[in-house]
Amino acid sequence: MRVRTLIERYADTITLLTPRSCVDEAREYLPELCTKRGWSIAPAVDLLDALLTSIHVVDNASLLDAEAEARRRIASRDPDDWAAVAVSIALDAPIWTEDGDFFGSGVATWTTINVEMYLAKESS
Asked: Cα–Cα 20 to 30 A to 55, which of 17, 21, 45, 72?
């Protein structure tokens, strides 16, 4: 819920981006996650759709200039995450994640607690 609250609270003052492949992956695994946790799938999909209205989705095709470098950096961890690293490289922006696969990839990573502290400070 913290992530949702942060996105909703600060969407008008910050730019959040995600690659299309991350959205596709979320849509693919959301039903399985909901079933495992005993949640209804439809409200979870609706929530994802609502949050995505505040997040700019970057087409993977627009990341071609950074793809090779991103793939090289994430290859030993999770090669499927190359697009998130490519967005970070292309925009010199940190990745907001709790996923340790990004740590050590040569791009800045911020966990939710760091994002929360930064946004609270910036808005005061």
From this structure: 72
Distance, in Å, from the CA atom of 69 to the CA atom of 44, rounded to the nearest integer, reads 34
Tokens of 51: 């949050």
Structure confidence by residue, pLDDT tens digits, 79-93: 999 999 999 999 999
CA distance linking residue 9 with residue 5, whole number of Å: 6
Residue bearing tokens 């499927």: 80
Domain ranges for the chain, please list them: 2-118
> What average pLDDT is seen over the chain?
94
**CB contact set of 31 (below 8 Å; sequence gap of 6+):** 41
| Lookup: tokens for 85 | 């690293």
**Distance, CA of 17 to CA of 36 (rounded, Å):** 28
Q: CB of 109 within 8 A of CB of 97?
A: yes
CATH of 2-118, one of 3.30.70, 3.30.200, 3.40.50, 3.40.390: 3.40.50
Q: Where are the beta strands (DSSP E) in 4-94?
A: 17-19, 56-58
